[in-house]
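Researcher: Going back to the complex we discussed earlier. I've cleaned up the inputs and rechecked each line, so this should be the final set. Can you rerun the prediction on the complete assembly and write out the structure?
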Amino acid sequence: MSSIVLYMWMSLDGFIAGPEDGPEQGLGRGGERLHQALALDDGADPASIRTADVVSAQVLAEAMDTGAVLTGRRTFDHGGRWNGDHHDGVPIFVLTRSIPDEPAPGRARWVTDVHEAAALARNAAGDRDVLLHGAEAARAVLDAGELDEMSLQIVPVLLGQGRRLFEDMPGEHVELDRVRVLDDPEVLHTRYRVRKADDREGPR
Amino acid sequence: MSSIVLYMWMSLDGFIAGPEDGPEQGLGRGGERLHQALALDDGADPASIRTADVVSAQVLAEAMDTGAVLTGRRTFDHGGRWNGDHHDGVPIFVLTRSIPDEPAPGRARWVTDVHEAAALARNAAGDRDVLLHGAEAARAVLDAGELDEMSLQIVPVLLGQGRRLFEDMPGEHVELDRVRVLDDPEVLHTRYRVRKADDREGPR
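Model: Rerun complete. Updated structure for the full complex:
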C-alpha cells in the first residue's frame, strides 16, 4: 500500500520556518536559510527546484516521485496553490476545516476529514508514496494514525524563533524506527518510520 | 584552550525531559525514554552509568573524561547536587541567579556570572573539555558566546510534551558546523561546533 511520507527541512532547534511566515514570505523571516542547500526561493515553482548538492537532489527527487500530494490549507495557500499542479500533475488533496466557496484549482480538491483525505491520497498514488506537506497537516495526519514515514532534513542552524514542526502535540509518545541517514557534509538527511499505535508505549 | 561542550539526549521533537520534571523526577513523566540506551535511572550516580550499546558508551565516556562541569542550578538541584562530585572529583561550577546561604557541597561552587563561570571552568579543565549540563544554562552559555560544541544524541521518539532544549531563544541565527555523526542503529549521535558571532549571518 502507498505510504504517506512527510518531507521537511528543519533547523536543529525544530523550526521549519522563521517568524512571521505568510503568503508573501512562505519560509518566514530568515527561514530561507533552511532551503539554502536547495537554492530555492520563496514561492518558486517546486518543479523547477535545483539542488546545491547530490544528496539533497536525491531526497528531492524522491519527494517529486510521489503519486499524490496531501497538504494543509495554509501551506497550499502560502504556496499560491501551486496553480493547481504541485508536480507532474498528480492529484492534490487539501485538508481544510471548511470547504471554500471557490473550487480548488487544477488537480486540487478540498477535503475536511483527515482519514478521508489520507484514503483518497493513498488510492490516487497507487504504488507510489504520498507527499505530505505542511506542519499543521502533518500533526493532524500523525494524530489520526495515518502518517507512515518522516523524511526530515536537519539543517545545521539554530533559528531561535519561528514555526515549529512539532508544537501543541498530545503527550503520548510516538516511537520511530530509523530507516536511514544519508551522508551529506551539510544537511543531515534522516528518514524515520512511525510505529503505529498498537506498538506504542506511552508515558508512565 | 578547553572547549565547553553540551551533552544532551534529546527526542526528535526537541525535548530533553517529559512534563512535570522536578527533584523527584529529573527526566519528567515518561522522560526516562530518552536515557533508555543508557539504562540510566533517574537520580542514578552519573559515575555508575552503564550503557546499553557501544556508541552510547563512547559518547558517555567522552562526557566523563571532561575536566570540569558547568551546570545550571536547576539541573544541579534536581540531580541531588551529585553530593558535590559529578565524576572523578572534577570541579563543578553552578550558575545561579543568586548565591544561596549554604555553601555548595564538595567540589561545587556557586557562580552568578556566565562569563566568569565559563572562564573558571575552562581554567579548571586544563587541556580537557568542560561538560556543560542543563538546558537553561546551555542557553545562557550559548547566548554569552561561550558555547563551543554540542553533542546531541537524537532519540527516535516524539515525546510531544515536556521541557525543550531550545526554547525562548533570541531570533538571531546560530550557524553550526557538523563535527561528526556516529552510527548507532537507535540513537543518532551528532556533534556540532558553534560558529562564533563574528562568523554568523543573522536573519534579514
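Model: Worth noting: The two ends of chain B are 34 Å apart (CA to CA).
Researcher: Good, that matches what I expected from the previous run.
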